[in-house]
């Protein structure tokens, strides 16, 4: 397979259930700063997605295999937070993150947003490099995160 085999599809029940597994992997949980929550809260979040206009989420597939998730959250009239994770670790480092970022950059532009931002754990050097290669600029640091911004203009 090649990078052209990347597809973005609906974030459905199958990918939601895979995400529950992915985000409980200690390494992925740490790198994505995923909080501990109970299953009922996660189900409620999933069930409420269709009614939300401040959230855009897509499943990432390599051919027919779901491998990750990408999206925008906290969408408002000017900006949104970009998030992504590849849950199937054998697909890390293959350029898929670039395609995931392009997917939501394009969507953010259709919404007429001025910018997107990402919160990257300070120790997550690979994500930092991914975002900066895709035009995000280091805006500021918090105690444990770097805030990166990509402006459309």
The number of helical elements comes to 5
Secondary-structure element string: EHHHEEEHEHEE
Low-confidence stretches: none
Q: Would you identify the CATH H-level superfamily?
A: Gcn5-related N-acetyltransferase (GNAT)
Query: What portion of residues belong to β-strands?
Result: 25-35%
- Mind telling me which CATH architecture this is? 3-Layer(aba) Sandwich
Rg for CA atoms: 15 Å
The number of distinct structural domains comes to: 1
Which structural class do the helices and strands define? alpha+beta
Number of beta-strand segments = 7
Mean pLDDT: 94
N/C terminus separation: 35 Å
CATH classification, class level = Alpha Beta
Query: What percent of residues adopt helix (DSSP H or I)?
Result: 25-40%
CATH topology: Aminopeptidase
In quaternary terms, these chains amount to single chain
- Across the major sheet, the strand order is 1-2-3-4-5-7-6
- Largest sheet features: 7 strands, mixed
Shape: globular
């Amino acid at each position: 397979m090649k990078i052209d085999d990347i597809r973005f599809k609906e974030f459905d029940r199958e990918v939601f259930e895979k995400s529950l597994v992915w985000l409980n992997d200690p390494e992925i949980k740490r790198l994505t700063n995923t909080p501990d929550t109970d299953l009922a809260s996660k189900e409620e979040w999933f069930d409420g997605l269709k009614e939300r206009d401040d959230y855009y989420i897509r499943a990432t597939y390599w051919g027919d295999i779901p491998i990750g998730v990408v999206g925008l959250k906290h969408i408002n009239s000017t900006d949104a937070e970009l998030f992504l994770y590849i849950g199937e670790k054998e697909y890390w480092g293959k350029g898929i993150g670039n395609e995931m970022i392009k997917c939501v950059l394009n969507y953010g532009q259709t919404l007429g947003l001025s910018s997107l931002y990402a919160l990257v754990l300070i120790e997550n050097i690979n994500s930092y490099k991914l975002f900066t290669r895709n035009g995000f600029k280091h805006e500021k640091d918090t105690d444990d995160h770097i805030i990166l911004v990509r402006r459309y203009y």
